[in-house]
Design a protein that fits this description.
It is found in: Cell membrane. The chain is built from 15 helices and eleven strands. The protein is of the alpha+beta class. The chain has two domains: about 180 residues, no CATH class; about 120 residues, no CATH class. The chain is elongated.
Length: about 425
């Protein structure tokens, strides 16, 4: 019997037991779909996070006190405006801007409710470090810093919630910062697309918040903040040199403040946005791989289902096997007949599972706010694996059929 005849016989057998064959395929379909969906969503989330970091700024550095060192004292070891000014001058060829950052929580009464706001005190050049997309007005100026002006740059959504469709520029925004109520004059409106992190936080039930920018001198005065900063941010000119520049800045600060690494004590640490993105990529990659491996277990279960059904098929067709062997069918042709049937079941299940998995990944990606990225290599591996499952779990039933004694098979009722 040639391969085409073997294929035809296998298909006729599958078609004769359509429901049983479909239920057998179902395990493979679910397994393949699960693997492709998980891997596609994992890769899609990594790509989306990469895009988020591009917007956030992959050329950012964060320099801070090392709070794991018990000897660190912010009043003694913290950063001053003079420190940041000197660093900006010394590393002028390597960095674009440097700014401290002081954060506080506040509340703003809107037309309908009270909204939580993150107040961020920064230098006038912070919009170079973080992409603040101004759509109206201006950002903070040096004069605002020196005069400790009570001015603010707010988000478009907050502006709409407070002032509706009115032009908010020049208007007063009443803000409650730690129980202290102050009026801030609005000088600018910015618009920022919702990030995947914010979408995930809202999905988990977190209350969305918006960021309000004001001069760091103003915020320090309002919240009675220490005179020194525990951290500052830097924007580098060349992203590929971020780690090198980070280490140079940290070493410079140690020498400037006479802090050595005697006995392994680290007073200052730095981290780059690139490092954070890479660490997050590694975590997401591991999670996707582990989840994919767990989902792949269902393929083994599906393979066991194929073996079970093929053993039933061999038992049901014992007399047929006996007759075929009696009229000259070889052991090889019997083996191939059942092996091809097993491969067809797993192959069709693999293709159907792939299509189903791609569809589920697309729908789930839309719901989660990003597109699932289907890697063709993953699809090929998944389908090949499903065919391999069919071969592996089909060998025993096929071999059992091929080794039947024709006389005993003809006697079978």
């Amino acid at each position: 019997m040639n391969i085409f005849e073997t294929f035809r016989v296998a298909m006729s057998s599958i078609w004769a037991n359509k429901m049983r064959s479909f239920l057998t395929m179902l395990g493979i379909i679910i397994g393949i779909a699960s693997v492709i969906t998980i891997m596609a969503l994992g890769q899609g989330s990594q790509e989306r996070i990469g895009q988020e970091f591009e917007t956030f700024g992959v050329n950012r550095l964060f320099i801070s006190l090392n709070w794991q060192n018990e000897n660190v004292d912010i009043m003694r070891d913290g950063f001053t405006d003079s420190d940041i000014e000197v660093i900006s001058s010394v590393f002028s060829e390597d960095i674009v801007a440097a700014s401290p950052r002081v954060d506080a929580q506040a509340e703003v009464k809107t037309r309908k409710t009270t909204e939580r706001v993150d107040v961020r005190g920064v230098y006038e050049n912070y919009n170079v470090i973080e992409d603040v997309n101004l759509i109206k007005g201006r950002f903070i100026k040096k004069e605002d810093m020196l005069s400790q002006r009570r001015v603010a740059v707010i988000d478009k959504s907050l502006s709409k919630n407070v002032f509706n469709n009115e032009n908010p520029l020049g208007k007063q925004l009443n803000v409650d910062i730690g129980g202290k109520k102050v009026n801030l004059t609005i000088i600018g409106i910015y618009e920022k697309p919702e990030s995947v992190f914010e979408q995930l936080a809202q999905t988990l039930g977190a209350v969305p918040s918006t960021t309000l920018y004001c001069p760091v001198t103003t915020l320090k005065n309002l919240i009675d903040s220490p005179s020194k900063y525990f951290s500052f941010e830097v924007s580098v000119r060349r992203t590929e040199e971020a780690d090198l520049i980070k280490n140079r800045i940290v070493n410079f600060i140690k020498k400037r403040k006479m802090k050595s690494d005697i006995q392994g004590e680290e007073y200052y640490v730095g981290v780059s946005a690139i490092e954070q993105m890479q660490q997050l990529d590694i975590v997401l990659g591991v999670i996707s791989t582990v989840m994919g491996a767990i989902a792949a277990i269902s393929l083994v279960v599906g393979g066991i289902g194929i073996m079970n059904i093929m053993l039933v098929s061999v038992t049901e067709r014992t007399r047929e096997i006996g007759i075929r062997k009696a009229i000259g069918a070889t052991k090889r042709s019997i083996l191939m007949q059942f092996l091809v049937e097993s491969m067809i079941i797993s192959g069709i299940g693999g293709i159907a599972g792939t299509l189903f998995g791609v569809g589920v990944a697309a729908v789930a990606g839309r719901i989660m706010g990003f597109e699932g990225s289907v890697n063709i290599a993953i699809v090929i591996i998944a389908v090949s694996f499903s065919c391999g499952v069919g071969i592996f779990f089909g060998i025993y039933p096929a071999n059992k059929a091929a080794n039947m004694d024709p006389i005993e098979a003809l006697r079978y009722e």
